[in-house]
Write a structure and sequence with these properties.
The chain is of the alpha+beta class. Helix content is 41%, strand content 23%. Helix 3 packs antiparallel against helix 6.
Length: 208
């Protein structure tokens, strides 16, 4: 077994753990069962976390190169992005992996990109994290139903017929616990952008 095969096994095992977390998260969606995620905020090496998530799909694409058309999978990080941020690492990783999973499944040409941008608003600093794809896109009509549980979009019936219809609902719920929300821009046959912002404090001092 060569190193590439070992890397693939490790990446897919990590992805399987994320899927298990999805199911666990759905079970805990009832307010009575939710924990105080704020208590689980820790210092995170954000570039390391982003690269980990992206590498799952770079490795997966290499494994599926004979089954799926080539898609350029890349990153575009703001050069002023802090080294560390304070957040819930498990939830943040789960959100990003799920967003990349959606982009990967529905993109058969062009690119899938994980991007960050530092912003300042009302004297507060934010890190915007975006997943951009050039895939099938979502119609304005279907955007209305994105966060309804068990609703399967028309594109899912073609590209992901075994989907549960819970992915984006879980993402939305996790982001609420991270004190933010998902934003979506999409156009049929042009692609989609899923993004959210995290308040990160004084990131300029954290760069060094």
């Amino acid at each position: 077994m060569d190193n590439d095969e070992i890397d693939l096994i490790v990446s897919l095992c990590d992805y399987l753990l994320v899927l298990i977390e999805d199911l666990n998260c759905f079970v805990q969606m009832d307010d009575k069962l939710k924990k105080s995620y704020k208590n689980n905020f820790t210092q995170i090496d954000i570039k390391k976390l982003l690269d980990f998530c992206l590498n799952i799909y770079k490795t997966r694409q290499n494994f599926e190169k004979d089954k799926k058309p080539y898609v350029s999978i890349k990153s575009n990080y703001d050069i002023t992005m802090p080294t560390f941020i304070c957040s819930n690492e498990k939830n943040l990783k789960q959100v990003i992996v799920n967003l990349l999973s959606n982009g990967y499944k529905f993109t058969n040409a062009g690119e899938l990109s994980l991007e960050t941008k530092c912003k300042t608003r009302d004297n507060k600093n934010f890190l915007e994290i975006s997943v951009r794809d050039t895939g099938t896109g979502i119609s304005k009509e279907e955007l209305k139903f994105l966060f309804q549980p068990f609703h399967v979009l028309q594109r899912n019936q073609i590209y992901n017929p075994n989907g549960s219809g819970l992915g984006l609902l879980i993402i939305s719920d996790l982001l609420k616990e991270l004190e933010t929300e998902i934003k979506i821009k999409s156009e049929i046959n042009q692609g989609s952008i899923f993004s959210f912002e995290l308040e990160i404090g004084n990131y300029i001092e954290l760069i060094f």
